[in-house]
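Backbone-to-sequence.
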């Protein structure tokens, strides 16, 4: 390899926002992750795929610090983070929307969002600006501020969870099964919005004709977010067509390890049958 080629390679590798190198994680004495290596670059959507129980959520929890890493390394924004506490990783720019969303069901939408601001010390004009951005992306939240989280539909809860995560101003947004609990008839609409926004799974309300104006507003807000700065997404999702619509690249896992990866265009039916179908 020439010096010029080596230099180019180093530059390309330095651009990765998140990089996992040979990560192994145990749960209850059992090895779950077996040498997971992957990376996510700024401004791209990466789908982490696989059958149930292969280690996808464990990978996300290892990245965020919910589970300790046994061996291997995790680098974020050029710094090693695998020994850092959960809150430090979050403040470094990792936003996480777990499976099940973890909103506070007995608190209102407004209170749920306020928690996101308080935890990260957002106040005053900065807090108002960030809330305005979330309301622009998800207008239904502003319309339902006094409604409790537990009575929201699945799609509305997902908007709230993502909106709250965005209030941390993350560099990387991690979404675990964002379409779970949302009507299949609107998953394609969610995908269209995420594809343009490159930030998040949107909502159930797009399923209604009267919400199309709101969808257009969301699209505009997403474009504005992209102009403000690159936001990467690591997405765990089993809905293959959704991943094909929104992701730039994919990794497929089996038995705690990555078995195949590549540009999303290479996620063929043959690959799906071999690596993803039960």
């Amino acid at each position: 390899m020439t010096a010029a080629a080596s230099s180019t390679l180093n530059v390309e590798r330095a651009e990765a926002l998140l990089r996992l190198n040979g990560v192994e994680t145990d749960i209850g004495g059992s090895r779950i992750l077996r040498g997971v290596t992957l990376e996510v670059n700024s401004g791209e959507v990466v789908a982490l795929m696989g059958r149930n129980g292969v280690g996808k959520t464990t990978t996300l929890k290892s990245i965020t610090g919910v589970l300790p890493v046994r061996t291997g390394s995790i680098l974020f924004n050029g710094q090693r983070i695998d020994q850092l506490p959960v809150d430090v990783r979050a403040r470094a720019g990792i936003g996480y929307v777990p499976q099940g969303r973890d909103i506070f069901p007995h608190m209102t939408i407004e209170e749920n969002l306020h928690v996101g601001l308080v935890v990260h010390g957002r106040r005053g004009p900065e807090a108002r600006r960030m809330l305005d951005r979330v309301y622009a992306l998800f207008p239904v939240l502003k319309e339902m501020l006094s409604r409790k989280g537990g009575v929201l539909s699945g799609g509305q809860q997902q908007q709230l969870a993502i909106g709250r995560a965005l209030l941390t101003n993350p560099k990387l947004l991690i979404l675990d099964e964002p379409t779970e609990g949302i009507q299949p008839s609107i998953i394609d609409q969610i995908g269209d919005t995420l594809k343009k926004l490159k930030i998040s799974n949107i909502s159930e309300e797009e399923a209604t004709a009267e919400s199309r104006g709101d969808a257009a507003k969301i699209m505009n807000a997403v474009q504005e977010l992209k102009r403000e700065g690159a936001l990467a997404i690591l997405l765990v999702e089993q809905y293959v067509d959704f991943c094909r619509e929104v992701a730039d690249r994919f990794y497929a896992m089996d038995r705690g390890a990555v078995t195949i990866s590549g540009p999303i265009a290479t996620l063929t039916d043959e690959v799906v049958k071999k690596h993803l179908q039960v």
